[in-house]
Design brief:
The protein is α/β, with parallel strands linked by helices. The protein folds into 3 domains: 124 residues, D-Maltodextrin-Binding Protein, domain 2, CATH 3.40.190; 88 residues, D-Maltodextrin-Binding Protein, domain 2, CATH 3.40.190.10; 67 residues, Alpha-Beta Plaits (2-Layer Sandwich), CATH 3.30.70.120. The strands form 3 sheets. It has a 6-stranded mixed β-sheet. Strand 2 and strand 3 form a beta hairpin. It is flat. The two termini are 40 Å apart. The N terminus is likely disordered. Bound molecules: phosphoribosyl ATP and zinc ion (ZN). The site of zinc ion has 3 residues, from loops.
Amino acid sequence: MPFLFLSDMNDRLRLAIQKSGRLSDDTIDLLTACGINISKPDRKLRALSEHFNLEVLFLRDDDIPGYVADGVADAGIVGENVILEKNKPVDIMERLGFAKCRLSIALPQTVDYRSVKDLNGLHIATSYPGLLGRYFESNGVKASIHEISGSVEIAPGIGLADGICDIVSSGSTLISNGLREVEVVTKSEAVLIAAPTITAEKRARLDRMCFRIQSVLKAKQHRYILMNVPNESIDEVIKLLPGMKAPTVMPLATQGWSSVHSVIPENTFWDVIESLKSVGAEGMLVVPIEKMVL
Ligand code: PRT
Ligand code: ZN
């Protein structure tokens, strides 16, 4: 039935993701957790995920903002740093919580540095001339930019520049090159972007994908907790537990005790556990949550 086939193709959402690099495994894992299965590319540039009617384009990360801005892809997953550098008109739909890093200016450890004014007159090597130029402009810094495409961290050591502006994650690359981070230009993480020209039908499909992504990300940020509580402590325990609406309380087979179940955020997890213990909760079990739909 040629007509059906064509309408399927026209509806098909095109998602651009990094072919191979720091974003690719986490991107494929996230899509898989959302029930969108795609196999890792070998030499292929495209793959289909039939049950979500999705076509995946495997690209270099630098090309993703342009492909999405031009509407060649409807959406993409890429580092925010790349979007800001390319300065293309795309809509950020979701922050994805992986590939977290910062773009920072670093100088040799031996250089005395007090404030951004000390950058005046320096020669800085970077692969991010757009972002760095805008940072200098908004901070009233008069410094020159030397654009290089790789191994930025060695530039001061070989006399190519006074300092660098590069992606920092743990900071160990800077330390091993005798450099010190002096200013953060921007923070970044992987984001889902959409083409400004996306059709209403594809936008609806992308919204469905966003809904799944939010459920997966929320689940990652929370834990399910079960504990035994003496009945006289239940009120105090409940005060400590935010839950989704309210904690579940069920009687235990042992008289005077209850089982309390709730959901707690990962970032306050240990503080909450300590407080619960101090008001009499015991036998706590903490389990991961796969999806969380609110
Ligand atoms: O081939 P392609 O062009 O697709 O990929 P790429 O080589 O340009 O990018 P890739 O795969 O290295 O990184 C993709 C994205 O991951 C970046 O655009 C950032 O959004 C994000 N990211 C997160 C990082 C890092 N962490 C990171 N640590 N990108 C690069 N680094 C490098 C950095 O350039 C430096 O050399 O790691 C070094 C610093 O790491 P630390 O841990 O020593 O501080
Ligand atoms: Zn790249």
